């Protein structure tokens, strides 16, 4: 009997949600890895969903995915749209009224999740 035969057929990941810091942090390797992740997501034909903006590690992933021709969706509350630098091209932005709805939509869109280094906001999103 083949290994894995008892498991249901695997479903392809169509959309991946990335959580991560809104700052780059102190380790330049984190930013480099975030860029590689964004490029890999685009190359695999997987849609990226993230919290919006160009800043930090999550911004690095989104910029890299968009520049590589990937589909990028930012889900962000209106008050952050007004305060953050948003991607100027290659990104669909969905503006929502608050953080709770943002998280709900991110969970509904995604087939899989990746967490990059971040702060308390990243931990909170993961544990929700």
What does this structure look like?
This protein has one domain: Rossmann fold. The radius of gyration is 15 Å and the shape is globular. Helix 1 packs parallel to helix 2. Helix 3 links the parallel strand 3 and strand 4. It contains five helices and five strands. The longest helix has 16 residues, at 28-43. The protein has 128 residues and is an alpha/beta fold.
Kindly state the mean pLDDT as a whole number?
Answer: 86
Number of E-state strands: 5
Domain tally? 1
What's the end-to-end separation, in Å? 39 Å
Strand content: 15-25%
Largest sheet: 5 strands, parallel
Written as H for each helix and E for each strand, in order along the chain, the element string is EHEHEHEHEH
How many helices does DSSP assign? 5
Q: In angstroms, what is the radius of gyration?
A: 15 Å
> Could you list the spans in which at least 5 consecutive residues all have pLDDT below 50?
none
Under the CATH scheme, which architecture would be assigned? 3-Layer(aba) Sandwich
Query: Roughly how much helix do the residues carry, as a percent range?
Result: 25-40%
From the spread of the alpha carbons, the general shape counts as globular
Oligomeric nature of the chains:
single chain
CATH class: Alpha Beta
Q: What structural class results from the helix and strand content? A: alpha/beta
- CATH fold-level topology: Rossmann fold
Q: What is the spatial order of strands in the main beta sheet?
A: 4-3-2-1-5
């Amino acid at each position: 009997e083949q290994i894995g035969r008892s498991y249901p057929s695997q479903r392809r990941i169509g959309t991946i949600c990335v959580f991560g810091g809104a700052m780059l942090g102190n380790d330049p390797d984190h930013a480099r890895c975030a860029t590689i992740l964004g490029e890999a997501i685009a190359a695999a034909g997987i849609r990226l969903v993230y919290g919006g903006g160009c800043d930090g590690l999550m911004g690095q992933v989104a910029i890299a995915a968009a520049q590589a021709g990937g589909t990028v969706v930012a889900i962000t509350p209106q008050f952050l749209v007004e305060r953050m630098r948003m991607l100027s091209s290659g990104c669909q932005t969905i503006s929502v009224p608050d953080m709770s709805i943002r998280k709900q939509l991110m969970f509904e869109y995604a087939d899989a999740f990746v967490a990059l280094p971040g702060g308390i906001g990243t931990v909170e999103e993961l544990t929700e």
